[in-house]
Amino acid sequence: MRPLPAPLLLRPHALPFRPNAMMAGSLVPIVMADDEWFVFATLSAFATAGLRLGATRLGRAFSGPICAMALAFAAVGAGVLPAASPRVLHAQALAVRLATPMLLLRADLREVWRSAGQMLPAFLLGTAGTVLGTLGAIALLRPSLGGAFAAGEGAKVAWALAAKNIGGGINFFAVAGALRLSASTMAVALAVDNVMALVYFPMCSWLGRDERDPAAATPSSSGAPLEAALLRGECAGSSAATEQSACLTVALAVVAVSRQLARGSGHDIPLATLITVLLATALPRVFGRLAATGDQMGTLVLYLFFASAGWTGGALSSSFVASGRVLLHFLIALYSVHLALVGAVGALMRRHPSFQRFFSVPVLLVASNANIGGPATASALAVGSNWPSLVTPALLVGNLGYALATPLCLLLYSKSL
Q1: What is the DSSP letter of 24?
Q2: What is the pLDDT of residues 237-273, one digit of tens each?
Q3: What is the mean pLDDT of the chain?
Q4: What sign does the dihedral 257-168-58-363 (CA atoms) show?
Q5: pLDDT of residue 305
Q6: Where are the bilayer-spanning segments (predicted)?
């Protein structure tokens, strides 16, 4: 039997880009900008700057991930960096693959059920809002999606974006790879989604500006975990070298095994998610010891993803004008339904004293952030808004989103055919 061709996500040099044309007008020489080490160095610089800015008063208002995204976005918009190139998408794919098992080492589903109970109903409400928003947007824009993309691409990109807005950017790549979404459509979708994110995340911070921590905890008594300090830009490097090495070994082993099992089908990231969740649930004492180190290292890698997302989002080319407008309308509809359902049901449930703690404004905002951006942005919002009691639940439901979104959206896509 002839083997299936590897998806474009796994073959960055086959991506349908014209780097020389897309880099025209950039202040960076073409040869340098097309070098993978230059791309990683640049993304690392933006990631580091985002971490540092996240510790400032202004940065806390937007969160470290958004700072990293905005810096890269501005650099591309100002012409300092070229528009998105195959190297940037390759860096995104590598960051997603490596971060996935690292961030899921604490994804013991039994612990999620026990410790994230306060936020779980709000997170599931946000998940329902995203699914309903996706179904409504597809029904409303079906002719436009069909006309703007090649046959079948419209539904694929719609459910890839749905997965992203249930559990974060890792799920976008997982669904896009599994469905063999073309690289050009991926680039446009990421550009539009990150433009929306640059509006959504600051809006969440503004909406929660006057809200107190639901537990009324003080910073000195909150016991904020290592992840919170990292997201504030206060990485202390407290993990032992042996734990870091073990964490890296586990992550690379999971990636290697998932790649072998996928055999070029594009399902390696969903398989890596499943393998890690099963290991974390079956052997919580073993992998739980590496969880803090995995969160630290995984978040650092994820910041490279945020920076690359900003770089891609700044590439507002003619392809964005042609098909990006349709996706912009799609995401406006998706976000509107998501926020309307979260806000309306949350307000209704808060009227009942027994449900108030599950649907307070801070809980709803952090849970929605976990849907749209994943655990890193959700935790960053909790830290920046001085809601320390919500940091750990944000991480747990965010990890649940990593585990839930990809299989759910692949299932819904298959049912929609």
Answers
A1: T
A2: 445 788 889 999 999 999 999 989 988 776 787 788 8
A3: 79
A4: negative
A5: 80
A6: 37-55, 62-83, 89-107, 119-141, 161-179, 186-208, 269-288, 300-321, 327-349, 361-384, 390-413
CA distance 63 to 231: 8
Q: Which amino acid is at 310?
A: G
What per-residue confidence (pLDDT) applies to 247? 92
Compute the radius of gyration of the chain from its Cα atoms. Answer: 20
Question: Which phi and psi (to 5°) does residue 322 adopt?
Answer: -70, -50
Express the helix, strand and coil content of the chain in percent, nearest 5 each.
Answer: 75, 0, 25
**Half-sphere exposure of residue 261, counting CA atoms within 13 Å on the CB side?**
15
Neighbours of 252 (CB within 10 A): 13
End-to-end CA distance of the chain: 26
Q: Among residues of the chain, what percentage have pLDDT more than 70?
A: 81
Q: How many CB atoms lie within 10 A of CB 306?
A: 32
> Whose structure tokens read 């951006």?
373
For CA atoms 247, 253, 258, 263, give the dihedral sign. positive
The C-alpha atoms of residue 102 and residue 105 are separated, in whole angstroms, by 6
**Structure tokens, 21:** 């044309």
Amino acid in position 261: L
Rounded to the nearest 10 degrees, the angle between the axes of helix 291-313 and helix 241-262 is 60
* Sequence-separated (6 or more) residues with CB below 8 Å from residue 275: 101, 254, 257, 258
d(CA 162, CA 166): 6
Cβ contact 200:372 at 8 Å: yes
| CA distances in angstroms from 29 to 25, 81, 142, listed in the order given | 10, 9, 41
* H-only helix segments in 314-374: 318-319, 325-349, 361-373
Which residue intervals of 23-152 are DSSP H helices? 30-33, 36-53, 57-62, 64-77, 86-103, 109-115, 120-148
